[in-house]
Write a structure and sequence with these properties.
Blueprint (H helix, E strand, L loop, with lengths): L24 E3 L6 E3 L12 E6 L5 E4 L1 H7 L15 E3 L2 H6 L7 E11 L2 E12 L2 E7 L2 H43 L10 H18 L3 E8 L2 H8 L1 H18 L5 E6 L2 E7 L3 H16 L12 E7 L6 H17 L5 E3 L1
Parallel strand pairs: 12-13
Antiparallel strand pairs: 1-2, 3-4, 3-8, 5-6, 6-7, 7-8, 9-11, 9-12, 10-11
Length: 341
Amino acid sequence: MPVIGQDESANDDGSGIGLEAHPRKIVARTGGAEKDAWISAELLPLLAIAMAALDENGVLLEANAGFLRLINDGGTLPIGAQVARFFQQPTLSALNGATADANGEIHQGLMTIGDSGRMRTLRARVWRAGGCLRVQAEIDIQELEQLYDTVLELNRNYAGVQAELAQSNFKLQQREAQVLALSLTDVMTGVGNRRRLEQALPLEINRVERSGTRLCALMADLDYFKRINDGHGHEAGDKVLTAFGALLRGQTRPTDIVVRYGGEEFVILMPNSGLAQALVAAERIRETLAATRIEPLPDAVTASFGVAELATGEKGDALLRRIDAALYAAKHAGRNRVLAG
């Protein structure tokens, strides 16, 4: 590692370090004798490079701002303080026991300096000169660049993982929504099942109570459905149910809730609708079904309807009983008709 301020000639001590262009006097804590300063005035305030001289016992003889910051964040540790404990790897005892080369160098490479709360690893060079250890350490730019590249790569990988997780979570939510929809759907007709009605009816009634809107319900029952099964087989009956389910989906609004209540009975909840509007919708469905030819039946299929509007304070069970009673009345009145309950 190049030495800051090194000239081409070696010093008298043979260290090859030419940092004495601007000497200053300090009191070295070694026998009380004064020595010329090794660290020049220009290097004293630098923080990017750490420089220090210490005796074999770890007493600090000289230090610039960079080294003082490593061992004491406030930079107030005085010259003459014991700093051996701050040499983590290699330790000061290891440095003292190391064999020097011809230039007095005893270590070149990574060095960890600091205490348990704050340590830094730098690229360092340590040598013996003038009866003391001299330390010069600086941040390894190449290692910093590698670390920066590593952090960037980790960030990219993290972003990729986050994107994959978000996509997986979105797909999972979609799948959960599909599973929920299937659990609330009658497979044969494609409309909601009874569980869907049990879920939706309390919510719609609560909406009416909160907002003061209106809610109507109608019940439809296919006329003479047992005759269809008995005379043409259950396969024909299934085709009728499927066709009626498709017709109901096509003849209702997106906000309406259509469910198969059981067997050949269907219920439609119509939010924000009054009784007159619900009666018109029921009559339209009745007429459309009567005009629809369903194979393999030779005759038209009809249905009877019971319609009611939710009364103030009325519960869901009471509303269902009213439309069922209206449907029963429509059946007894001759079928293929709409009656209000």
